[in-house]
Amino acid sequence: KKIMLHVSRFIKLKGLPTIIQAYEQLSKEFDLDLYLIGGSKEDELYEYSINSGAIVKERMTHDKLNLYYSAADVFVTSPNYDRALLASAGIGTATLESLASETPVVSNGLGAYLGKAESVGFIPKNYDNLLHSLRLILNGNAKFTNLNEKASKYYDWSLVIEGFLSRYKHL
Protein backbone atom coordinates (compact mmCIF):
# COMPACT_ATOMS: atom_id res chain seq x y z
CA LYS A 1 0.00 0.00 0.00
CA LYS A 2 1.23 3.51 -0.87
CA ILE A 3 0.88 6.41 1.55
CA MET A 4 0.31 10.09 0.80
CA LEU A 5 0.75 12.36 3.80
CA HIS A 6 -0.46 15.88 4.52
CA VAL A 7 0.20 17.64 7.82
CA SER A 8 -1.50 20.94 8.66
CA ARG A 9 -4.65 22.45 10.04
CA PHE A 10 -7.72 21.37 8.08
CA ILE A 11 -8.43 24.67 6.35
CA LYS A 12 -8.94 25.78 2.73
CA LEU A 13 -5.84 27.97 2.79
CA LYS A 14 -3.71 24.84 3.14
CA GLY A 15 -5.18 23.38 -0.08
CA LEU A 16 -6.89 20.45 1.59
CA PRO A 17 -9.72 20.13 -0.98
CA THR A 18 -7.15 19.87 -3.80
CA ILE A 19 -5.20 17.19 -1.94
CA ILE A 20 -8.34 15.18 -1.22
CA GLN A 21 -9.44 15.48 -4.85
CA ALA A 22 -6.02 14.21 -5.98
CA TYR A 23 -6.25 11.32 -3.52
CA GLU A 24 -9.70 10.36 -4.77
CA GLN A 25 -8.43 10.29 -8.35
CA LEU A 26 -5.15 8.50 -7.62
CA SER A 27 -6.76 5.88 -5.40
CA LYS A 28 -8.40 4.55 -8.58
CA GLU A 29 -4.90 3.84 -9.94
CA PHE A 30 -2.95 2.89 -6.80
CA ASP A 31 -3.56 0.96 -3.60
CA LEU A 32 -3.35 4.21 -1.69
CA ASP A 33 -4.05 5.75 1.69
CA LEU A 34 -4.09 9.46 2.45
CA TYR A 35 -3.18 10.44 5.99
CA LEU A 36 -4.36 13.88 7.06
CA ILE A 37 -2.70 14.89 10.30
CA GLY A 38 -2.86 18.02 12.41
CA GLY A 39 -6.43 19.18 12.29
CA SER A 40 -8.87 19.68 15.09
CA LYS A 41 -12.65 19.56 15.40
CA GLU A 42 -12.72 23.37 15.26
CA ASP A 43 -11.11 23.49 11.79
CA GLU A 44 -13.39 24.52 8.92
CA LEU A 45 -12.71 21.33 6.91
CA TYR A 46 -12.63 18.81 9.73
CA GLU A 47 -15.91 17.11 8.80
CA TYR A 48 -15.02 17.25 5.09
CA SER A 49 -11.73 15.50 5.93
CA ILE A 50 -13.45 12.85 8.03
CA ASN A 51 -15.91 12.13 5.21
CA SER A 52 -13.25 12.05 2.47
CA GLY A 53 -12.11 8.47 2.99
CA ALA A 54 -8.73 9.67 4.24
CA ILE A 55 -7.28 8.49 7.52
CA VAL A 56 -7.61 11.50 9.82
CA LYS A 57 -5.48 12.11 12.88
CA GLU A 58 -5.66 15.18 15.06
CA ARG A 59 -2.57 17.02 16.27
CA MET A 60 0.07 14.79 17.81
CA THR A 61 3.52 14.99 19.33
CA HIS A 62 6.54 15.17 17.05
CA ASP A 63 7.89 11.80 18.17
CA LYS A 64 4.66 10.14 16.95
CA LEU A 65 4.45 12.33 13.86
CA ASN A 66 7.95 11.28 12.78
CA LEU A 67 6.67 7.72 12.35
CA TYR A 68 4.11 8.94 9.80
CA TYR A 69 6.70 11.01 7.90
CA SER A 70 8.98 7.98 7.71
CA ALA A 71 6.22 5.63 6.57
CA ALA A 72 4.90 7.93 3.83
CA ASP A 73 5.83 7.54 0.17
CA VAL A 74 5.18 11.21 -0.48
CA PHE A 75 4.37 14.33 1.49
CA VAL A 76 1.95 16.64 -0.31
CA THR A 77 0.82 20.15 0.42
CA SER A 78 -0.84 22.67 -1.83
CA PRO A 79 -1.23 25.99 -0.04
CA ASN A 80 -3.57 28.51 -1.66
CA TYR A 81 -1.33 31.49 -1.02
CA ASP A 82 -0.69 34.30 -3.46
CA ARG A 83 2.56 33.50 -5.37
CA ALA A 84 4.43 36.47 -3.86
CA LEU A 85 3.36 35.48 -0.36
CA LEU A 86 4.21 31.83 -1.05
CA ALA A 87 7.77 32.76 -2.00
CA SER A 88 8.28 34.81 1.16
CA ALA A 89 6.54 32.34 3.47
CA GLY A 90 9.27 29.72 3.21
CA ILE A 91 8.68 26.03 2.76
CA GLY A 92 7.24 25.26 6.18
CA THR A 93 8.19 23.07 9.08
CA ALA A 94 6.14 20.09 7.89
CA THR A 95 8.02 20.04 4.59
CA LEU A 96 11.36 20.12 6.39
CA GLU A 97 10.26 17.35 8.74
CA SER A 98 9.28 15.28 5.72
CA LEU A 99 12.68 15.78 4.10
CA ALA A 100 14.40 14.94 7.40
CA SER A 101 12.52 11.63 7.25
CA GLU A 102 13.69 10.98 3.67
CA THR A 103 10.18 11.47 2.24
CA PRO A 104 9.96 13.39 -1.05
CA VAL A 105 7.73 16.44 -1.28
CA VAL A 106 5.14 17.62 -3.80
CA SER A 107 4.30 21.23 -2.98
CA ASN A 108 3.89 24.54 -4.73
CA GLY A 109 5.53 25.97 -1.60
CA LEU A 110 8.73 24.11 -2.46
CA GLY A 111 9.65 27.03 -4.72
CA ALA A 112 10.98 28.75 -1.61
CA TYR A 113 13.42 25.89 -0.95
CA LEU A 114 16.93 27.30 -0.76
CA GLY A 115 18.60 24.38 -2.53
CA LYS A 116 17.70 22.70 -5.81
CA ALA A 117 14.01 21.97 -5.32
CA GLU A 118 14.03 19.33 -8.05
CA SER A 119 16.45 17.29 -5.92
CA VAL A 120 13.89 16.86 -3.12
CA GLY A 121 10.54 16.79 -4.90
CA PHE A 122 8.25 18.52 -7.36
CA ILE A 123 6.68 21.97 -7.59
CA PRO A 124 3.34 21.49 -9.36
CA LYS A 125 2.18 24.41 -11.49
CA ASN A 126 -1.46 23.30 -11.62
CA TYR A 127 -3.76 20.43 -10.65
CA ASP A 128 -2.83 18.19 -13.60
CA ASN A 129 0.84 18.73 -12.82
CA LEU A 130 0.16 17.87 -9.17
CA LEU A 131 -1.36 14.55 -10.25
CA HIS A 132 1.53 13.87 -12.63
CA SER A 133 4.11 14.60 -9.91
CA LEU A 134 2.37 12.34 -7.40
CA ARG A 135 2.10 9.56 -10.01
CA LEU A 136 5.83 9.73 -10.74
CA ILE A 137 6.65 9.21 -7.08
CA LEU A 138 3.94 6.63 -6.35
CA ASN A 139 4.83 4.44 -9.32
CA GLY A 140 8.55 4.61 -8.52
CA ASN A 141 9.61 6.53 -11.63
CA ALA A 142 10.99 9.43 -9.58
CA LYS A 143 13.72 8.62 -7.09
CA PHE A 144 14.95 11.04 -4.48
CA THR A 145 17.86 10.21 -2.22
CA ASN A 146 19.71 11.78 0.70
CA LEU A 147 16.84 14.19 1.36
CA ASN A 148 17.82 14.76 4.97
CA GLU A 149 21.38 15.66 3.98
CA LYS A 150 20.22 17.97 1.19
CA ALA A 151 17.76 19.82 3.42
CA SER A 152 20.13 20.12 6.37
CA LYS A 153 22.67 21.92 4.14
CA TYR A 154 20.25 24.82 3.85
CA TYR A 155 18.13 24.64 6.98
CA ASP A 156 20.58 24.26 9.81
CA TRP A 157 19.60 26.85 12.46
CA SER A 158 22.96 28.59 12.29
CA LEU A 159 22.53 29.04 8.52
CA VAL A 160 18.99 30.34 8.94
CA ILE A 161 20.12 32.91 11.52
CA GLU A 162 23.06 33.93 9.32
CA GLY A 163 20.66 34.45 6.40
CA PHE A 164 18.33 36.63 8.47
CA LEU A 165 21.19 38.74 9.80
CA SER A 166 22.52 39.22 6.28
CA ARG A 167 19.12 40.45 5.05
CA TYR A 168 18.70 42.87 7.95
CA LYS A 169 22.13 44.40 7.32
CA HIS A 170 20.86 45.47 3.88
CA LEU A 171 17.75 47.23 5.21
Quick structural summary:
By secondary structure, this protein is of the alpha/beta class. The chain is built from eight helices and six strands, in the order βαβαβαβααββααα.
User: What is the mean pLDDT?
Assistant: 87
**Helical proportion, percent range:** 40-55%
| Structure class | alpha/beta
Amino- and carboxy-terminal Cα gap: 51 Å
Number of helices: 8
- Biggest β-sheet strands, sense, barrel: 6 strands, parallel
* SS strand fraction: 15-25%
- Poorly predicted tracts of residues: none
Oligomer: single chain
Strand adjacency order, main sheet: 3-2-1-4-5-6
- What are the secondary-structure elements, in order, as H or E? EHEHEHEHHEEHHH
Describe what you observe in this structure.
44% of the residues lie in helices and 16% in strands. It has 171 residues and is α/β, with parallel strands linked by helices. Helix 2 links the parallel strand 2 (32-39) and strand 3 (55-58).
Show the helix and strand layout.
Elements: E1 2-7, H1 16-26, E2 32-39, H2 46-50, E3 55-58, H3 62-71, E4 74-77, H4 83-89, H5 93-100, E5 105-107, E6 121-122, H6 127-138, H7 147-155, H8 157-169
Parallel strand pairs: 1-2, 1-4, 2-3, 4-5, 5-6
Helix pairs in contact: 1-6
